[in-house]
Amino acid sequence: xxxxxxxxxxxxxxxxxxxxxxxxxxxxxLVMDRLKFLAITASNLDEFFMxxxxxxxxxxxxxYNKKTVDGLTPTEQLTILNGITQEMMAKQYTCLSKxxxxxxxxxxxFFLSYNELDEEGKDFALHYFRHECYPVLTPQAIDxxxxxxxxxxxxxxxxxxxxxxxxxxxxxKDFLAILEIPKVLDRIIxxxxxxxxxxxxxIFVEDLISPFVNELFTGYDVKQVSEFRITRNGDLAIDEDExxxxxxxxxxxxxxxKWGASIKLEVTKDMSKKMKKWLMNELEIAESELYELxxxxxxxxxxxxxxxxxxxxxxxxxxxxxxxxxFYGATDIFEVIRKKDRLLHHPYQSxxxxxxxxxxxxxxxxxxxxxxxxxxxxxDSPIIEALIQAAQYGKQVTxxxxxxxxxDEANNIxxxxxxxxxxxxxxYGLVGLKIHCKMIxxxxxxxxxxxxxxxxxTGNYNDVTAGLYTDMGMFTAKESYGSDVSTLFNLLSxxxxxxxxxxxxxxxxxxxxxxxxxxxxxxxxxxxxxxxKIIAKMNSLVDEGIINKLYEASQAGVEIKLIVRGMCSLxxxxxxxxxxxxxxxxxxxxxxxxxxxxxxxxxxxDIFLSSADWMERNLNRRIETLFPVEEESLKKEIKHILDxxxxxxxxxxxxxxxxxxxxxxxxxxxxxxxxxxxxNEAEQEFEQARNQAVLLQxxxxx
Length: 702
Prior knowledge:
Blueprint: H1 9-25, H2 31-61, H3 74-106, E1 109-111, H4 119-133, E2 139-142, E3 156-163, E4 174-180, E5 188-190, E6 200-204, H5 205-209, E7 221-232, H6 246-257, E8 262-268, H7 273-283, E9 290-293, H8 302-306, H9 333-339, E10 342-346, H10 352-363, E11 367-374, H11 382-392, E12 396-401, H12 409-421, E13 425-427, E14 434-435, E15 438-446, E16 449-457, E17 469-476, H13 479-493, E18 505-507, H14 511-527, E19 533-538, H15 544-556, E20 559-564, E21 581-586, E22 591-592, E23 596-599, E24 606-610, H16 616-620, E25 622-628, H17 632-646, E26 652-655, E27 661-663, H18 674-701
Parallel strand pairs: 1-6, 8-9, 11-12, 12-13, 14-25, 17-22, 19-20, 20-21
Antiparallel strand pairs: 2-4, 3-4, 3-7, 5-6, 7-8, 10-17, 11-15, 15-16, 16-17, 18-25, 19-23, 21-26, 23-24, 24-25, 26-27
C-alpha cells in the first residue's frame, strides 16, 4: 500500500492527545474537569515516551532502519515526534497558566510561591518543612567520592547549586547536589486560612521546600534551586522463550524499568545553562530530548488535586451507574441469564452486576467451577475476593492472569500469588502471546444437568475503570457459547489444538480472517446490486491489512462509518479510495473503550462485540475473542447505541482526508452528547424498574 494512503500511528496517537487537550482548553467544561483533562494529557504523554518513543530510540540504537507504513525511518519519525511533543507540552503549560489558573483565581483558588506568602503563611511553611518534609528528605551531593546517583523515572527532583566560601581552590567553590521530592509527601499543600475567608491558597511542596534547602547543606550558600524530571525507557524486554519462570522474570524486569535508559529531561525555564549542561551530561540527554517548561513539573499531579471534596461544585457531579432494569431486584441471577441473553452497557449500567455474578457463583452450592481471565484489575478487587472465596468453598477455580499487562505487571503478580495461595489454579499467560480476551465461565449443576453460564466483554474486569470507561458485556447460558468458552479455556490451560468454533472467533488464528470474510461479503453484496454497510467502533485502527480491506470496500461502494477514539492510520474521504468512509472520534467524560462491529449482510445485520481493536498486535499477537450478539432485542439495543453515538454533535470530531480532526458544525443540528444521552437513558430505565418493583410490592401487600 502506498505510504501516502496511511497516517503514522505515533502521530495519530499524538493527535488523539491533542483532542484531550482541547477538552482542557474548552471553557464549556467546568474548571476542575478542565484540570482533569490536562492531567490526563500529561499522564498519557509520559506513557507515550516510556513506550512508543523509547521503542523508536531502541530501533535507532541497534541500527534498525526499516520505514514505517507512511514511509518514515526511525530517525525521521523521532525528529517529527520531538517537534510535536515540544509544541504539545508548551501548549499544556499555556493552557494551565493562561486559561485554567485565571479561572481558578476567579473562583478564589490560588497557587502561591513562597515569596507571595504572608508572615503567617511563611511560619506555616517553615513548620511544615521541619516537621513533615525534613525527616524524609535525603540530600545527595555529587563529587569525586559520590557519583551522580540513579534518578528515578518520572520523579520530581530539585537540582541545587551550592557555594563553599571556605574552599581553598577557586574552581572548587561551586558544588551541585540533587534532592528527590518523595512521593510520600503531598505534592500540593493547602495553606491555612481564616474561618471566614473564602479564599483557598495552595503551594507546591517543592516551592515550600526550596527556601529551606540551606538547612540540608549547612556551611554552604545556596546559589540556585531548580526542578528537573527524567523519563526513562519503560518497555519491558523479556526473553519468554528462555525464562524458566515467567513470574520471576517479570518481577525482575519491573525493577529494571525504574532504571531504563533516559529518553526525556524536563527542566524549569529558570534553570541556569551551567546546571542544564551538567544534568544533560550526567543523564546522557541530547538537546532534542530536553524540555524547558514554564511552571512546576509533572502536571499529572492535578488529577488528585481536582478530585478534592472542596471543589465539588467546580466539576461535573460524578455519574452513579444504574443497575440494569433486567437485573434490578433479581434474587437469582442465574435464572435471569437462563431466560435469555442479557447485555450491559457500562458505565451507564453498573458493573456491580458482573461482580454480583461472580459473588453468587462463589457461594452457590450448585456451582462446581469458575474460570476467568484477568488482564487489569483494581487494587482492591471484589472479583478477586470472590474467586478466593470460591476456592475456599471447595470449588474448582481457574484464573488466567496476564502478567504482561503493561504497567499493571506488579499489581497482577500480587493478585496471582494471593489467588494461588487460596487454592486457585493460576495460569500466567502464554509465551509470545498476551491473553487479552475478557471472559468468565461458571459451571453449575442443575436439575436437568450441567449448565454453563458465560460472560463475555469488551473491557477489563476492573471495578474502578468500569465506572470511567465505556464498555459492553453479554451474559448467556446458551450451550454453543458455553462450549466455545470451555474449549478456549482448555486451550489456554492445557495442550489443545484450535477448534472449529461454533460461535466465537479467536485471535491469532481465526479472528483476522473472520473480519476479512465479513468485509468481503459486504463488497460482494454491492456487486450484486444490494446494500453494503459497515459500522465499527474501537479504540484504534492501525492494521494495514484491515485498512486495505476497508479501502477496497469503499471503492466498491460500501458505506463505512468508523468510530475510532484514538489512533487511526486510515485516511477517509480520499477521492477514488475512501470516499465512502467517515471517521468519528469522541472525547468526553468517559473513555470510549467498547469494540462493536456491525455488518449489514443483506439485512441480517450481523453484530459482534470484541476485546480486540483493529491493530496488528490484537489480531496477530494476542488471545482475543469476537462474539456475535444474536438476540433481536439486544441487536436493537446495540444499533440504538451506534445510532446515538454517530449523532453526537457535542463531543465528536470528524477526521479529514489529511488526518486532522474538526469539530462538527452544530448550526441547524440538535445538540447531542451521546455520553449524557446514555446516562439519562439509564437513569430513566432504572427509575421505571424501581417504580414497577414498588407497584408490585404494593399489589402483593394488598
